[in-house]
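Hi R.,

Quick one: here's the GNAT family N-acetyltransferase sequence you asked about.
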Amino acid sequence: MSSSATDQVEHPASTTLAPIAERAAAPSTLPPVTAGDLTWRAAEPADAPALLALRNGIAEADQEPYRETIGEIEELFTAPWRDLAADSLVGVDTDGTLRAYALVDTNPGDANTVRAFLWGGVHPSHRGRGVGRELFAWEIARGRQLLAASGKELPARLLTYGEDTDPPAKARLYARFGLETRRFYSDLRRDLTTPIPEVPLDGSLRLVPWSTELDEATRLAHNDAFRDHWGSEPRTSEAWTHGRSEFAPQWSFLVVDDAPDVDALLADPTTDPETAAALRAGEPLVVGYEMAGRYDEDFPVRGYTFGYTEILGVRSAYRGRRVAVAALAAGMRAFAADGMQYAALDVDTENPSGAHGLYASLGYEKVTGSRMYSIEL
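And here's the predicted structure, written out as tokens:
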């Protein structure tokens, strides 16, 4: 599942930073991974079923509140910006079974902080043999190489995520490599048998179902809505549309302004260039959105059915007009109509927009939690 939780950035101005190549301190060669009597190679598309089994096996052992699908795993291999030949490893035992993996990922749209995401895991059968330590050293080193190669003179971050249910050894591993806990997230749910509010919209605002025709306008709304949120970066068109194997368009809703004050928006210094170009071209203006996913594999793990709000956002110029509540309530009604028992989402516990209070007022309650670990460069 994707997290909608991000907050205001707190980094020094990039002009005070040393060059990214210096800060990243990228090694010229990657450390070898030899532990565990495994054969190591890059991940390949044909590995998708085995990688799914490995990742879900790790999730079960660590009591993580989700399971993945083959579609989600296959998407790892189809992102056009990824080079898995260089940015992944899998460890294979003598029977040909995958026992460990690593993936280092970047986001092509990073414009405020350039990031390297570190993903990986070791099957319980091969823990305690030094595999995780060597594998994470490889991830850190490759992440530093990618940050240096980005050429982006921006603040930089090496990061990974963990569930509250993770074994203590995982947190100790991250600490050993200098990662610190930076953010905490709450996974929330709301009982759909309780009344869902009716939320009228004012003026020329209109609630509509998500559609392909409005998807690019929704991307622009998202980039505006999350511009002042910690950890969030602009989404390129290819990143926005990728990774939708579990996307539920029937549960996703938008708010559009049928008669925006174009002159005022163009005069607003916070209006980004892409939105300004769309306004001049007379394109539709999405001002808020609720994008949802359906994760059937998680239902038996959690013990209930639910619809999941992936991201919820409102353009900065339209805040205070109940746009988010209208979109979220529409999503909840769609979940309920399809027989879901709960609405679910997650949120940064330090979110400055008041999102936590909003969700609490609508009946959302915390179920589980997760956290982000990082090295800030």
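Residues 1-14 have pLDDT under 50 and may be disordered.

Cheers,
M.
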